[in-house]
Fold this sequence. Notes:
By secondary structure, the chain is α/β, with parallel strands linked by helices. Helix content is 30%, strand content 31%. β1 (3-8), α1 and β2 (33-38) form a beta-alpha-beta unit. α2 (41-49) packs parallel to α3. The protein starts with a strand and ends with a helix.
Amino acid sequence: MALLVAICDDEKGIGADLENALMKMLEKINILYEIDVYFTGEALCAKIEEGAHYDLIFLDIEFAQNAINGVEVGRLIREAYKNNITSIVYISWKMKYSMQLFDIRPLNFLIKPLDYKKVEQVVKTYLSISGQGSQSFSYKIGHSIYKMPVKDIVYLQSDKRKLTMHLADGKKEEFYGTLNEVYQAQLEGLDFLFIHTSYVVNYDYIKAVRYKEVILTTDGASLPISRPKRAEVREVYCVIMESRRV
């Protein structure tokens, strides 16, 4: 299912830049998306009244030529349209509106000019709390995007730009990307251990951690732990084990 995003800002340059940034972010982590851009609060509200639904809205507060501002749009979404599900991220040049937004329960408030690292963090926060991208791993083969349950992934192996996903049933999937990017975007915080520049391993399939290697539960195979990561791997493994109270 695609992530449905709306951007509503009367500064067309900001809207275009934000749209491009979101496209790059979501494509990097293989999230299907649709983005609509509006230049007035009235246009956004009219579309919602027609039945449009958005998962995430980036909403400007001040519109130079229009009667309705972003605060009022947010109240309409929450109160008139009875929508308490859509996440709203306010964007503004000023902080003065922050207290007026309390009842609208925005996901975040970002100050212009936008810091796109903060925008990316907001997107990751949304994906985390909504459950999108957190329990399934997305990857692209050709022009198609696929999803794999995280619980079925034993480990990922990197060979230059080619990644091989080894699955619990013995099957493999090959696709292109970098191990560091997919780990940071989708697997970090999901009990995967980055044991080597070429390997990221699911904790659930680790039988033992030795000084130079991890042993897998699936077939007893071993994967190398690189010298710089030996201390880190043991520490992370113990943290995960403690968190699960094993």
